[in-house]
Design brief:
Helices cover 69% and strands 0% of the residues. The protein is mainly alpha-helical. The longest helix is centred in the middle third of the chain and has 30 residues.
Length: 281
């Protein structure tokens, strides 16, 4: 009795837009391993370990309070300065850290990609998941600080829109994911991006309402300022937490449309690049 040979064929799909959702689902165990790897590798042989996830935004908050509140006397929308800056930093960190980590996916994993086949979208998805976990831990510290100010008698109250926080997280995570995979695809050919990206992200932070509320921007420039897709995320987060701030509906809608466009453009470039990046890199 003859048995048929089983042949597995790995191809790149029939379209540049081809994303095999079923294949990603079959590799969910590998996705979990990549998330675990992010936790272990980044903080292996460190004294504080994952405590760095909350220590970094707290130290940055202390610096911002000293420089921008005590020295520069910048507005914080009449909110306690530590809460104001920490709220901006943890939302910004979700975007910036995820963006920067995903941008280096091809370069950091080139030896794995060259030897083993698996869906190339697994590492950036895992990176996004680990950064969301990072945000949750930082948000827990933010809530603790928030409660301390409430106990001390400060009149701050969250908005009912706080219930929509998961949607805001999706918005920010998808935005950074889209920018990340787009940049990752471009860095395969244009290595200058690897060197300039940290500077771009640092400069971007100064334009993202992290240190300055939207209300402090001259009124004629507020709409232009809020077209930065990160500004709606930061300002809406403050609106949810404090009941103040926020952007108008139009910039928020523009941000959502821009988010979708960047995501699809990033997927297009990523899928196109992953087919031959081993020959280029």
């Amino acid at each position: 009795m003859k048995t048929k040979d089983i042949i597995t064929v790995i191809d790149s799909g029939s379209s540049l837009y081809f994303i095999d959702i079923a294949e990603l689902r079959r590799h969910r165990y590998l996705l979990a391993q990549f998330v675990y790897r992010d936790f272990v590798v980044h903080y292996k042989q460190t004294i504080l370990g994952p405590v760095w996830w909350v220590a970094q935004p707290l130290m940055m908050t202390a610096v911002f309070v000293f420089v921008f509140s005590f020295i520069a006397k910048l507005s914080t929308d009449q909110l306690p300065a530590p809460l104001f800056y920490l709220s901006g930093l943890i939302m910004w960190n979700l975007f910036a850290q995820n963006f920067q980590h995903i941008s280096n996916i091809f370069l950091e994993n080139k030896h794995v990609f060259q030897k083993v086949y698996f869906p190339r979208l697994i590492p950036p998805i895992a990176c996004t998941c680990s950064n969301i976990v990072r945000f949750v831990l930082q948000f827990a510290v933010f809530v603790l600080l928030y409660l301390i100010y409430l106990i001390c008698g400060y009149t701050i109250c969250p908005s009912p829109t706080i219930l929509l926080l998961p949607l805001l997280l999706i918005y920010t995570a998808v935005l950074s994911f889209g920018f990340g995979i787009l940049t990752a695809a471009l860095t395969v050919k244009y290595r200058d991006l690897v060197l300039t990206l940290p500077f771009i992200i640092q400069l971007w932070m100064f334009l993202s309402a992290v240190m300055l509320p939207l209300s402090a921007v001259p009124e004629r420039w507020q709409f232009v300022f809020s077209l930065n897709p990160v500004v709606p995320a930061v300002e809406t987060f403050r609106l949810m937490c404090f009941g103040t701030g926020g952007v108008s509906l139009l910039p928020l809608c523009v941000g959502i449309v821009f988010n979708v466009l960047v995501l699809f453009l990033g997927l297009f470039m990523f899928v196109r690049t992953e087919r031959n990046f081993t020959d280029t890199i």
